[in-house]
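User: Could you check the structure of this?
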Amino acid sequence: YEAYPDAPSLAAEMRSRGHEPDPKSNWGKLVDSLMAKYVEPNLVQPTFLTDYPRDVSPLAKGSPDDARQVERFEGFIAGMEVCNAFRELNDPVDQLQRFVDENYRARHGDDEAHPIDEDFIEALSYGMPPTGGFGMGIDRLTMLFTDKDTIREVILFPHLRTQRDGGDEDEAEAAS
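Assistant: Sure, the predicted structure tokens are below.
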């Protein structure tokens, strides 16, 4: 944080090391891109990464220790994300501001930005108790246990696979 506290300084350092970061990326997305390229593929042993940038987690509750982080973790095994979890943000004012920030990013080319969800904000304003979410990718665990390289090799509905991915073309036609 101290060395590169904002997107321009981090992007400049990335460029000085031969990277071409997306010029539209905020600080959190730059950090996330570095993690995805240099850290996550090397997490062979089961590992949990915690304290994600707020910029990439608009629905997660903020960290009480650092306003730029949220209470979120992801689990990795063999270089692959297998789960994602976070405490849900239940403050309607904070959530609305994050949606406004996301809306600004969407208008400036961020395809992953969340739209403003006014119904969700209204529901939060009635009060939501502390909650959390946890998602585990069973398909990714199956990939890990069966030593497969792509999710398409282990998906539940083989008719969604193409022949190139190992699916049977006749089987795919019969299923549709």
